[in-house]
Amino acid sequence: MQGARVKTKLPSKTKRKLLSKQQIAAKWAAAAQPNYAIATAKELGLAGTARPRWEITGDYGHQWGSAIHELLEICIKSPQANLRSSALTLAAEYEIGSDRVDELLTTVQSVVQSDIWKRARAASRCFSELPFETSFKDASGKPTIIRGVIDLIFEEPEGWVIVDYKTDDVTEADLPAAVAYYRNQIDEYAQQWHDTTGYQVAENGLYFIRVDSYCNSKSNWSLPAR
Does residue 190 lie in a domain region? Predict the structure, then answer.
């Protein structure tokens, strides 16, 4: 005698809920968002500070500063290079004007003759326009990548010295406000360098090129005597 046939009840098909075009677009937009943030060390250092009365505009704006930085980098990395030729190229690239090439060269030469530059050239290790990148996580666990470029950094027996060039069109009277505004930025660079490499930072400073003035942490940010 054959047993009774048992009927198996198949589960009903699950109905899938179709998404609207707007919902699909929203999901794609969310997926495209990075799961990390990016900040510059300069932004972190200057966060919460009020811009002083002067502006980095006009004849000594961003283009001028970029040209000066690049020429100083050439002086460190290729001291035998034809600096006038480089200045002509950069003046054209940044639309400064060939009539200001002599001013570019005179400005760079004043930096090269400064005490801080001589210290850098005599150091055991010296780097110009040195990029760095670090990261940290906020309270939610989201990582933030921090990037920056150190204008001049060199090693002395006491530790590393970090210098940031400032090409702002400041006067002697502006220096106290300028130091107060920028010192957190260079402090941030020093902290990032120490955290990344473990090396001791002995001094970090700001070199205001327009007035040939170097203010630094070692002197407690006091203005140099004239």
Answer: yes
Q: How many CB atoms lie within 10 A of CB 125?
A: 10
* Residue 90 to residue 5: CA distance in whole angstroms: 91
Confidence at residue 7, expressed as pLDDT on a 0 to 100 scale: 61
- Evaluate whether 151 touches 164 at the Cβ level (below 8 Å): yes
The 10s digit of each residue's pLDDT in 62-114 is: 899 999 999 999 999 998 999 999 999 999 999 998 999 999 999 999 999 99
Question: Can you give the residue range of the structural domain that contains 72?
Answer: 36-219
Say what percent of the chain tops pLDDT 90.
56
CATH of the domain at 140: 3.90.320.10
Of 149 and 53, the one with more pLDDT: 149
CA distances from 167 to 29, 43, 155, 177 (A): 41, 18, 24, 15
Query: How many other CB atoms sit within 10 Å of the CB of residue 225?
Result: 4
13 CB contacts (<8 Å, ≥6 apart)?
A: none
Specify if 40 maps to a domain.
yes
Longest CA pairwise span in the chain (Å): 118
Structural domain includes residue 99: yes
Show the CA angle centred on residue 119, arms to residues 165 and 197, nearest 5°. Answer: 70
Residue 31 lies in a domain: no
> Which of 45 and 59 is assigned the larger pLDDT?
45
The sign of the torsion formed by the CA atoms of 175, 209, 196, 32 equals positive
- 81: DSSP letter: S
Residue whose pair of structure tokens reads 């290079």 in the numeric block: 81
> Amino acid letter at 83?
L
Query: How many independent structural domains does the chain possess?
Result: 1
